[in-house]
Design brief:
- It is a single chain.
- The protein is globular and about 55 Å long.
- It has eleven helices and 13 strands.
- The chain has helices spanning 16-27, 44-51, 65-75, 96-105, 176-181, 194-202, 230-247, 250-273, 277-292, 294-307, 321-327; strands spanning 2-10, 32-37, 56-59, 79-85, 89-91, 109-118, 133-135, 141-143, 146-147, 150-151, 161-163, 171-175, 208-219.
- α7 packs antiparallel against α8 and α7 crosses α10 (294-307).
- The chain is an alpha/beta fold.
- A hairpin with a 2-residue loop joins β9 (146-147) and β10 (150-151).
- The strands form three sheets. Strands 1, 2, 3, 4, 5, 6, 11, 12 and 13 form a nine-stranded mixed beta sheet that branches. The chain has a two-stranded antiparallel ribbon with strand order 7-8. A two-stranded antiparallel ribbon has the order 9-10.
- The chain has two domains: 2-219, Spore Coat Polysaccharide Biosynthesis Protein SpsA, Chain A (Alpha-Beta Complex); 230-306.
- Helix content is 40%, strand content 21%.
Length: 334
Amino acid sequence: MTKTAVVILNFNGEKLLPEFLPSVIQHSSGADIYVADNASTDNSLALLQRQFPSVKIIALEKNFGFCGGYNRALASINAEYYVLLNSDIEVTDGWLQPLVAMLDSQPDVAAVQPKILSYRNRTKFEHAGAGGGFIDALGYPFCRGRIFNYVEKDMHQYDDEREIFWATGACFIIRSNIYRQFGGLDEDLFAHMEEIDLCWKIHRTSQKVMYAGSSSVYHLGAGTLGYDNPRKVYLNFRNGLILIYKHLDGRELWYKLPFRLVLDWVAALFFIFQGKFKSASAVVRAHVDFIKQRSLHKVKRVDIHTRYPSYHRNTVYSGLILFDYYLKRRRRLI
């Protein structure tokens, strides 16, 4: 069995792979490097075979999305630790060692995320993960170093090691047995917030999710879907509802879910005022599909709550991020 497998999911990344893969090869000694290709229609596979012969290729027969692609790729890899790494990330010298060392030395840690910095503006954090992920009392996700569109400069304020609620799917390491225990990533989410769902499940066990600020990587971000892309808006709003429906206790769900629905409609109105009509429509479609698919998610909710009745909340922010950010003007919450 290989100890560590670094697995990059690729879809039509012919332009990204030559830019970012060399750093992974150079700085990931001791790990096997895989590229799982989600049935790309460009020349990704030919490029990999020609320019990067040391990289192992897993060619999937169709595009299974982020969740399905990783689930199928990782099922064929025999390793103790899986590293899920976006194709638009540049890693740094020594990035992998602190992540592996934390899993080696702390058996109650299931997953670890490094510091995520911006590839374009290297003095700032990046949207996806930043200094570690958290959720608020309504289940809204945010990060240390990035709340909504406010992004902090990296002044070494998050060079610590600490427990977090979720590790970004852009770059994190996880024990393979934990990944398999929960059946991997929920494919009904397709993409976006799937890592939060997995980490929420981890919090239902005695295991932890950690952040290691001594490891840094640089993320281009929005390499597949832009931040304002209506498809991304749809997935974020739909999947946000699915997450709280699956995980919140019944006594919380009866009032928090309607509250979230109302706040989503407020967000849709803001999109309309900004002239982003496709994004507003995406919010509506997200609600419609969530309601249509509720019976499917109810089955998963019952299963999760039966097998893992509760989760520890020491990394759940007790306040409301919308209230604290927009009304109190707070830019750092954790």
